Every structure is written in structure tokens, then in C-alpha cells.
Queue: 2 jobs
Job 1
Amino acid sequence: MTGLRRYRPIPKGTHPPNDFAEYGSSKLRHPKEAPVSIPQTLSEITGPVSGFDRFGPVEIDLTMQHAAPAQGERIIVEGRVLDEDGKAVANTLVELWQANAAGRYRHDADQHDAPLDPNFSGAGRAVTDAEGRYRFVTIKPGAYPWRNHANAWRPAHLHFSLFGPSFLTRLITQMYFPGDPLLKHDPIFNSLSDEAARERMVSSFDFALTKPEWALGYRFDIILRGRNATPTEAEA
Amino acid sequence: MSGATPFQTVGPFFRFGLVFDGCDQPVGASDGTRIVVEGVVKDGAGAPVPDALIETWQADPAGRYRHPEDGRAASDKPFDGFRRTATDPDGKFTLTTVKPGAVPGPGNRQQAPHLVVGVFARGLLTRLVSRIYFDDEAANDQDPILECVPSARVKTLVARRIGEGRYRFDLVLQGEGETVFFAP
């Protein structure tokens, strides 16, 4: 076998720490031991890159999954999935899930006193094109309260799940909206100490994406872990 | 280009978005030994974690990955090595799969059969990465990745055979018996 093309080290501050006291749920759930460094092997540089039909059909319009249109402010969310060198990640699965316009999830454990919308499930799925592009039409989610601290509210957000070309490029993140006054109070958003890192999770309003008389457009590019330039070690 | 997009927690309300019919079951490749891996996810107080998402990735019974960067001849029975399952209210999970073969490792050495594992949950701001090995595989003793692990903690990575084709593997997120998590 030829050399493996390994993925580059993750610079400190790229991702949040799991030990983050301001986020109460992390207290008993973050490992106390440091992670054990291991070489990247064939097991890690491979990963699910095909067979995505298993996950269900592509559903890029979350507003029209039921008998009537979903309630709330319709939005267009579009972006590209790229690696750290700016190269498109084509043909990869993008999973999206979210609360409805009132800030309520279609989930048994969500007890927030806000209405469910019978015409909104809040989950979609896209596969990126050759340029790494994906597009969703959905409803702007509402903010919602949680019990992390007094008067705690999550800023409006969309959950994104991505695979990329290997097990090492897997990412689950949240997309936020520009100018949201709740961002500066949210411990999950602020678990990143670096402002530039936080900004990578905030979409930008985009007139070019906005469809007249129909919906505002938000752009959200997602950057997955990149590779080393050349194979570093020959392996059998 | 700037850095990668950061992880954020999967949160407590992911089921309707991520868990689909058959995601914890094998697809393709009927060859090999069918196995069930079951266990509990526990927190630092020993309490079950009822809202964890576990994903696994593995080779087929011949040790081949369904991926273009596995340069060996592809199997004529394509095997989808990805599984996903969520814990139930008691923190339990079950994965049905086929036992993987040994796969190539660093320095011309073989790796013992294993699944790579990703764990997400409310309270975890990123993904935790681990591995599941099997206690009936002699090759564990020569595994180049297990060699990186302090010997007293290796057992946290080894599923215990509890019956015909059944293995037990608990994930302890914190504290006594904490599972080994990796930084590859």
C-alpha cells in the first residue's frame, strides 16, 4: 500500500474544551484523563463516504414536509463545505436539525412551554455538490430557555452534522445568526475562547442569496480538518 | 484559509435529526460472524447517560474498509462499516454488526480487530474518540495502538464476550474506570 495521507494536527483553541464549568452538563461528563495520542491509521483516515441513501432521502426544504407550509420566518441557508486548504468537500452528507419558530424541538424530552408546529419536523439532509455546496430552505428557529443558569436562553441556532472524507473529519456543530444579542451570554457559544473561532460558527446575511418577496438568505461555510501536504510514512 | 469550524455539543434533542431506521444494523456483506455489542454509558457519578450518541466505523470481515483510500482490492460484497445508535433512558446501547478482520497498522504491523468509536452527548462540547477491541482476540497483545495505552487502562477498550456472538462494552465518561479516549 502507498503512504497514508494523514490529517494535520489540530491547533489549540480550534475546538472547545470538554471541561468547561460554565456549561453545567459538562461537569460529570468530561473525561478527567488527557486523551491518549495515537498515530493515524487506515482505521481513522477512512470513514463513511458512500451509502448515504441509508440515512433517508435528501430533504433540503424543511418548510414543505407536511400538508401545509411550516409556520415562521422562511430562510435560505447555503454554503460550501471546504477543508482547511479551501478545497471543496464534494459528495458529503450534511445533516441539519433544529427547533421550530417558537423555539421548541420535536422531541419528547423538550418540555419548553411553546407550541409544536404540526407542519414542521425540523430535520433535513443534503449531499454537497462538486463544489462542496449545500442548500436548505427552512424556518428561522426561535430562541429557547434552558436551565444552565438563571434566565439562561440559547441563541437561535441550527445543528449541523458532517462527515467529510474520513473518520477524522467528522464534525457536529451549531450555526448561529449574525447580531444575535444572546450570543454573548451563551456558554456553549463562548466555550471557544478565541473570537475568530467563535465567528466561524456565525452565518452571514447575504442579499445575493435572499430571494425577493420570499426569504432572507444566510451563508454558512463549514471548514473540516485538512490534510498534511504529503504522505508521511509508508505503510503496508 | 482560516482554521476549522469548531465543534459544538450535539445537545439533548438530536434523536429526530440523527437516528434513523436501521442505523444500528449491518448493511451488505452477509459473510463473517454476526455480533452484538451492548453496554451502558455512565457519567462521573456512575449515573447512566440517557442522551448519548455513539457512532462506530469498521472494516469488513476480511479487514477491508469501504473507502477509496484503502488501496487493496475492494470486496465484491460491499460492506457499510458505519453504525450509529443512541442510548435509551437507562443509558444502554446495542449495536449489531459483523466482526471486523485485522487491518494494516503503522510500521507494517497488523492491528487487532476493532471498531473506532465516536461519542457525542449533551455536556460534551466535542466528540470523544475511542476504540472497541474484543477479548477473544489473541492479536490484542501485539496491537500497535493498544501499546500506546497505559497497561492498567487497556481493559477499558476491550469488549468482554458474554455469550455466543455477544459482547459487553461500557463507556465511562469520567472517573473510576474512565474509558480511554484518543487524540489521533
Note: The helical segments of chain B are 15-18.
Job 2
Amino acid sequence: MGQATLVEASAAAPPMVRVRGFVKRYRRQVAVEGVDLTVRRGEIYGLIGPDGAGKSSLMKAVAGVLSFEGGGLEVFGHRVDSEASAEGIKARIGFMPQGLGLNLYAELSVEENIDFFAQLRELSAGVLAERKQKLLAMTRLAQFRDRPMKHLSGGMKQKLGLICTLIHGPDLVILDEPTTGVDPVSRRDFWAILAELLRSQGVTALVSTAYMDEAARFHRLSLMYQGRVLAAGEPEAILEQAPGSVVSVEVEPQIAALRRLGTSFSQVEGIGPRVRVFVPDAPPEAAAERVGATLAGFRLKDLKAGEAELEDAFIALLEKRRLTRISPPASDASYVEGKWGRFDPGAPGGASDGASHGGTGDPVVSIEARGLVRDFGAFRAVDRVSFQVRAGEIFGLLGANGAGKTTVIKMLTGILPPTEGEGAVAGADMRRAGQAIKARIGYMSQAFSLYQDLTVLENIRLYARIYAVPHRHLRARIDWVVEMAGLAGVTGRLTGRLPMGIRQRLALGCALVHQPRVLFLDEPTSGVDPVGRRRFWEILIQLSRAERVSILVTTHYMSEAEHCDHLALMYAGRIIADASPEAMKADLQATAGQLLEVASDRPLVALERLQRGGYAGVALFGRRVHLLARDVGAAIPAIRRELTAAGLREISVTPRAPTLEDVFVYRIMAMERQAREGIQ
Amino acid sequence: MSGGLRLWLSRLGAMTLKELKQLSRDPILLVVIVYFFTADIYIAGAGVHMDLNNAPIAVMDHDRSAASRELIYRFRPPYFRLVREPQSIREAVRLLDEGKVLAVLDIPAHFQRDLLAGRQTVVQMQVDASNAMLGTLVSTYAGRIVARYGFERAKMHLGMGKAQLQAIPVVENRHRVYYNPNQSDPWFMAISEMLTVITMLSLMLPAAAAVREKERGTIEQLAVSPLSPAQILLPKVLAMGLAVLVGAAASLFLVIQAVFHVPIKGSSMLFFIMTALYVFATSGLGLFIATLSRNLGQVVMLVILIMMPLLLLSGAWTPPEAMPAFLRQAMHVSPLFYFTEMSYAILLKGAGLGVLWRLMLELALLGSLVFAFGVWRFRRQFG
């Protein structure tokens, strides 16, 4: 019933898209198998799923640019089953393919790109000028009209892509992973602009994403996995299909607790000092009780229970359909001593002695940066960056594209000499002993830089020889990597033919083959499905907790940043916050106020009202609005009053714990505001 | 410090093995290598001739006499082939325009009568010289045929038999042809093509291997490893150089020697050592190309761009003596010039190190310079 009022007075109209039993094959490979969905006028319909779920194939078919093998497809009520019928609908569709700015022309300026797409669609000059003006203003790209597309940031490219997709005034836009590879601030900005455009132009959207936490942006969605729909409907309805609660607790000793919980629950994660457990089919109170009982005898602190998120439901649904197993059999009693056998077989190599080898529990610094500066010509990419990473710590470096994260990593790994400042990695001085550092660290880049035409074993062996693993330990090290990364059975396969998740673990194994005490991970999980990502983090937690390996990781996934023990947030080359995730959230609440979630029967109206009401950080999350309020006691009744006066019903306002994404966005926005005021 | 050296070599070995494995798993690259070193060289040797071969001609015989028929009869295969007898001058010109014939022989009326009467007579030859080389060949061959016929008619007219021939003061030109006694074109063409193929592949293969690491992002992984730029680059040159040498051996022994019967006069060992030196020099250029390119497409474009002047300045297609002076000087910066000179010297003339040491030294010097430049560019980009 909420849907009818949201998508105002158009529920009776024929659906924009109707898909029945859709099948798409690439030769023998089935990409999509029997998918049904209906997109109604005015809604944002989401396709969520990891790489290879079949999202792109389905979207291309709806856009009329891909033939398919089975099932029926209707767009705007017209059957689309041939090239000719597809031509009939294309004029009313805007399609933005996957990849940052892939449909745009790098050498053309922002305005030239828009003009080109308008000419393709034979738009009259008057209409073009008016629409261009409006769209550039809404996306705040007006001041960059003359900038070549290749010099735009990731988020700006996607906004330009959106303009080019909307310039001919389509009734339906199809956006294939528009937010992949875009930082959280730009992502949020993109969603806000999309919601605004849809509201003002009455456009319907079919949007895909690999980020589970974006589900709340959709009115309705289909959760896809390996060519099938796992669940479909409103976000709340999907959560109800795999009911359960999430319990989070700080526990000592963590590794033993994870093992204990693994015997009773299938979804167990270590996050910072805490463990997070999904308890199926239980309300929060009962779930907390069960977890507490399971962990009897451990030191527990700050036990919290709450609603599950979509990712939990996704994995629970996969398990229900027996499509995956998350945890390895947890009967292994040697978890703490070393789940995969000893990390150091034989004598410790050159990599593991020296200052990095911590004694019993005393915090040894493995990575230290002191006032690092790097200039590229007149441009200062990194500005006086200092931080410390201790042995056994997972340290997260967060920041938008171009914030300087990768430059910091390049300096610390000895690829790039710093302009100023100093640092030490694994006991070696960064300025003088670059080669020693290279031999002592492990490094894994976002591309999982493996040789695709070598087999798994050949890749491991190559890196073992590059890192000079002594011959007598070679067998033991290779066995360790295979065991740790779960590669038994695929060692003879060509790397290029393996799924992303396995390639990622192989890349990690190659980075660890020489037992480094320090590990650098540059966006290690892009493109990997949630199951693979959880397994990957399980390995990292094990490495840091049991083997005391220091890990420096950069990531775009805010849900991943939650796993880190310590975070540094970078903006324009500087570190603007440096604390644990918990402390960052507490700090946000202290400075900006409590996060409130507002639900109502007409969220778009609520959004507009609250934005005009002058609240901080007002943003739409699907059917709910988030905002920050300093005085909760006064704000809640004030919001209720205002929305009731606007004729809204079913209003609820509840305080919520902020996520790291809230922290990130708030901090960056504050910096951007400062920068603007500085200029003026 | 033998431990350090052993480690250095072990890393080099691991990387070279990796390159060879990758090459062996790239079917397209393998097809390219095999094709260029066998079929391509065979086609070049068998298909390109500097002789006139079955040139189509038309004849307008206005005399239709025994004498004219005898002259026409002399334009025959393998040099000429009579294809038409046009009825009018206009038709003859049209045949030339359409490229159906390369030349038109026009024999006037009273041809035989004039000859018998001891008067001078003229035949006309219209030649299509749009292909300059072919045009020259046609007019030269035709000129010789007509001159010989005229000489014999003149002798007959004077009533001279075979015996009196000695009495005429004629200068006879006797050739003594060295190195290629039958002046067989396949010898020259096949060797020349092999040198071209070696050049192209030793530019392209290391560049492709290096740029592929860039495209896939693996270069970053190598840059943070304890490998030095030389340890990253040298294996590509070693592996691809090995592939080129194996290919060169196949084309030398299986095509050039076995099919075209070129006697390899000099030491083939010396030829391969020299080839290895040359491959090293050109792969430096290849690595330079790799630093300029972002993908394989750009590599191919740049290889063509560099290949053309290398070839034109090498003397493989045009002899150095035929070039203007400033280009003749420029040839000394083309490694292919040295390679061409030395290859012909070793393979056909049987030259040894005693003759070639100077050229070899110059090539080594040039090669080291070019290679060092390539590594320097690469180090600046990824070091």
C-alpha cells in the first residue's frame, strides 16, 4: 500500500518493464536463468548481486542491445523480441553501461560530450540548451563545462554519464552499476541527484549495484546470484524472507570466541575487537541470549543485538538454498595455534626477524610514517601524513579517489621516493633501505595482479622464487598457501579461468608466500561477492590475531572499514581523522548529533520537508530519511509535528547507531565546506 | 659474493621461465611467429622475381610477312606472352590503359620489303611504365630482342655465315658472377625477408610482453617486489630473443637452405651470435616502445612507425650506393644496416670475424646504447 502512494497515482498504469522467465546464454554458459520481474512507473528498481550474477545481461536486454534465448520481455507494454522491435523502444530509453565513463569520450569536454549525445538523439537547440542548463546545475558540474572528461573524478564522470543518459528526456533509464568504484561521498551525492531527477522528471529507473548496503536506495529490488533471483520485493520484505538478528559483542580472546561461535552459527565475523554473529529466526533479545550462552566463560563487554542487514539475509538465503557454505568445519581445535599449520616453517627467513617480530603482546610499531610529503610538480598529492601501525593490527586507510591513499602506499613500499618526511617499514628505513623493505613486505593490489595464463601453482612458485624463499622450505610454503587460501583442487587450473573470489585469495597467498610481517592491501576486495569477501576477511583476522601480521588496507567499502582496528581518513592528501571505528562514531555523535531515521508513508515528501527544515545531513535511504540532530529530545517531536502538518502518516522517528559511511560523509562534507569558505 | 649472484640468477631464471610459459600459452602469438618464419619467407623467396616473367603484350602486325612473324615469334615465354592482336591504334591504347597488356609492339607495313631491300626500318614499342621497375624490364628485354633480330638480319643481308662471324669487330661482354652464380632472386629475397621478420618480431615480442604486464597491472606487483628493473626487463628480452633465434634457425635451415638451396658459405654459429646481438639491440627499441604505449594496439602502431625507416635505411631494399649522401650517413644509426651487411657477408660470401669485427663492434655499441636507453625510460616510469 505504501508503494501506491509513493509512486503517485500510477499503480494502475501498465508496468514500464515486464520480464518473464528470461534466459540468456553465452554459448554453453548460462548467464541468466528464468528471471521474472516487473518495474512500475516512477520507481527505482534495483538489481543487487555480485559480479557474474547476470545483472548486466538482463539490463542490456531490457535496453534492447542484447538478444536473449528464452522468456518474454515487454518494455512500455511493447514486446521486445527482435532487433526491429528493440528499435521502437530505444528512443524512450536511456542506458548507461558499466564502467567509469566508458560510454563517454575522454578527449571531449563535459559540454562537448553532452552536445554529442544530444545530436545523436536529434534534439533541437532550444530544448538542449534548457535541459543542459538544468542538468548541469543539478549535478553541480556547471563550473566544469570545459574540462575534458578524462580529468574528472570518478564521481563526476558518473554524473556526466547520467546527464548524457537523460539528455533526450527518456521515460526509463537503465544504469548498470553506476556507483562501482566511486567513493562514498560521491555515491551518496549520485543517489541524491538520481532521486531528485526521478522526482522532478517522472523518470523510472532500473539500477544495478554490487554494494549490498545500497539496497535501501531502492523502492523494490531483486537479489541476484549466479543468474537467478534469490528474493525480490521491497527491502523490508526481503529481510523478512531470512529473518534473524545480529548480535555484536566485544570479546576476549577473540580468536577462541570466533571458533566457539563457529560451531553453532554459520555467519560469524571478527570486526575490530568485536565479533558479529547472525542468529537466524530469532528476535534481538533471544539472539543476544543465545550468543551470551554460547560464549559462557569468555570476557564479554558491551553486548548489542539489532536488526540484520541485507548482506546477512543474502548469505542466509544462499545457505537456505544450499548454494554455499560460509564457514569451514569449525571442529579444528588448533585455530589459535595456527589454523593452517605454522606460519614459519623451519627457520625464520630474513623477513621475519628484526624489529617487526613482536614479543609477547608489547606493541611493536611495524609501519611508521612521519610527516610524509609528496609533490607532483606544483601539485601536493600527500601532505604531512603521519601514522603508526602496530604488529598484529589491521589499519584502514580510507578516502575518496585521489585523496592520496595509493601515493602513501607507494612511498611506504619503496616504489616512490617521498619529497619530504620519513618512515620505517618492518624495521627498515624507508629512505635508505627501499630494497630491504620490498623483500620484507607483502603487497596485493586491487587488480589481483596475477598471471592469468599461468596455473595457480605456477603463480605461487613464481612469487616464491622472486621473494627468494629458500629451496628447502619451498614445498612447505606452497602447501601453506594452498591450505590457507583454500586452493586444494584448483592448483593445476589456469588462473584466468577461476572465479574472482578464488583469484583474490590466490593473490593474497602469493603476497604471503615469503612470510612477510607487514602486508599492504590496496582495495583488495573490489568485485568480489559478499561470501568471498567474508572468507577473505576471516583470513585477514586470523593472520593479524594469530600470526601478528600487520595489515594496512585501503578500501571503498565502508562495511569493510568496520573490520579495521584503526582507521585513518584521508582528504586532499591529508589525514583528517585517525582513530578506531568506535571512536570515530562516538565523535560524530558528539560533534554533529544523534542519527535519526525517519519513516513515513511518503518518504519523498518527507525528504523535501526535512531538507527545507534545516536539519543536518538529510539523505534518503530508500523509503527512509536519515538526518543528524543535536538535541534528540526536541528534534523527535519537532519532526513528527512538521511531517504531520504536511499530511504524512505512519510517521516514526528512531535513533540509530551511525555507520562508518555516515562518519565518512559527514567528515568529507565538512572539509569540502571549509575548502569552499576558504576560497570565498 | 656468489650467494647474491646466485639469487640474482635464480630470479632471472624464474622470470624467464615465466615469459616462456606465457608465450607457449598464447596461440595467436605462436601462429604469428611460425607463419613469419616459414610461410612468409617462402612466399617472399618464391613469389618475388626481378626477372621479367610472362609479361603480357599485344602486337599490331601491319606487314603480315615472314619477317614480322619471325620477330613476333621471338617475344615468347618465359619473358613475354602474346595476348592480343588489336585491330586499331585506339584499341591498343585502350588495352594499355586498362592494364591488360604491358606493351604494344607495332610493326609497320613494308617491314619485310624494306629489310630485303637493305633499307632501314623501324618498329614501335609502347610501354606501360606505371610500375617503373617492370617498365624498365619490358623495354630492356624488348630492346635486346629487336636488336638481336636486327643484327642477324644485317648479317644475313651481308651474306655472312657462321664462319665469318669472327671477322666482325664486336665487343662481347662476359660476366663472372660471384656469391650467387645463377643470380637467383629467391636467395636474395628470402634472406632479406628473414632479416625483416627478425627485426619486426624482436621489436614486437618484448614490447608486447612488457605492455601486457602494464595492461594487466602485474607490473605494479613486480615493482614492489625485490626485483630490479633489469631483472624485470632482461627476462623478456632473453625469452623473446630465444624465440626469435629458434625461428631464425628454422627459416634458415628449413626454408632458405632446404627449399631454395642457398649454400650457407660462412659459419652459421657466427650468424646466430650476430643475430643474438642484433635482437638485443632491437629489443631495446621494443622496450622503449613499451614505455610509450598503454596497450597492444599502440605497440603495433609504433612498431610499424619504427620499422619503416629502419628498413628503408638498412640497404635491404635499396642499395646504400643509390641513396643521397645524407641518407647514406643516416644508415649508420639503423641497426638493420649492420645486420644486413653482415648477414649477406656470412651467408653468401662466407666472411668470418676477421672481416666483420668492425661492423660487429659498431653494432654492439649501438645496441648497448639503444638498450640502455630503453631500460632508462622503463626505470623512470616504474622504478
Note: DSSP finds 15 helices and four strands in chain B.
